[in-house]
Design a protein that fits this description.
The protein has 8 helices and 9 strands. It is an alpha+beta fold and about 210 residues long. The model has no long low-confidence stretch (mean pLDDT about 95).
């Protein structure tokens, strides 16, 4: 179905448990997705592997929040098969301008190496897409984003669908009913992504991960 995606429609959709997609970048049609099984990333169960921990300790990268939302959006769309068509691009840029769309960027040598973007609504973060131009950049972005969301008091990270990549990071699948129960609780949680100052220090993330494991 063809839908004019306004910020109000998008926020209402997320609050109802559905999200938009398109078949590919050149398809003007948008449809709504409500999976029977939903992927989530537990905010207290993100798995930092030994190799990722070594990469974080090695440093040599910069993590930022909302430094270049559109570049992350474009990075996620820059692949042969993408559901980010022009109307979806425009809609999420509008959400970002209104303070609902957010991105976590990873920079190396002054260049955008990878990132993740999504939508924050009360205590829920709806992860939309991520990309990497350098090895492990999307994993680093998720590690920093999830740590920040947990510090701010978020209770739900919606990963939409499980992939082997996300499963290795601790993602799990739950039923639609379980997801909606978590979503209701998250929407009753009055927090924002700016409740805590963003700190991109990977050592602190590793220390907190050790304390909670």
């Amino acid at each position: 179905m063809s839908t004019h995606l306004t910020p109000a429609i998008l926020l209402q959709a997320y609050a109802s448990g559905v999200f938009p997609m398109s078949e590919h970048r050149d398809d003007p049609e948008v449809f709504w997705v409500d999976p029977h099984q939903r992927g989530i990333l537990p905010l207290d169960g993100f798995h930092i592997s030994r190799s990722l921990a070594r990469r974080m300790r090695r440093g040599g990268y910069l993590a930022t929040l909302d430094q270049d939302f559109e570049a992350v959006l474009n990075g996620c769309a820059s692949r042969p098969d993408t559901w980010i068509n022009p109307s979806i691009h425009e809609a999420y840029m509008a959400l970002h301008r209104l303070g609902y769309g957010h991105s976590l960027e990873i920079w190396q040598d002054g260049q955008l190496a990878g990132g993740v973007y999504g939508v924050a609504l009360r205590g829920a973060f709806f992860g939309e897409s991520m990309f990497s131009h350098r090895t492990d950049a999307s994993k680093l972005a998720l590690a920093h984003l999830i740590d920040h969301l947990a510090k701010c008091g978020f209770t739900l990270f919606d990963a939409q669908f499980i992939t082997p990549h996300l499963a290795r990071l601790g993602a799990r699948e739950i039923s639609r009913d379980q997801y909606r129960a978590l979503l209701r609780d998250a929407l009753d949680t009055e927090v924002t992504i700016t409740d805590r100052r963003f700190n991109g220090d990977p050592v602190q993330i590793l220390q907190r991960s050790t304390q909670t494991s």
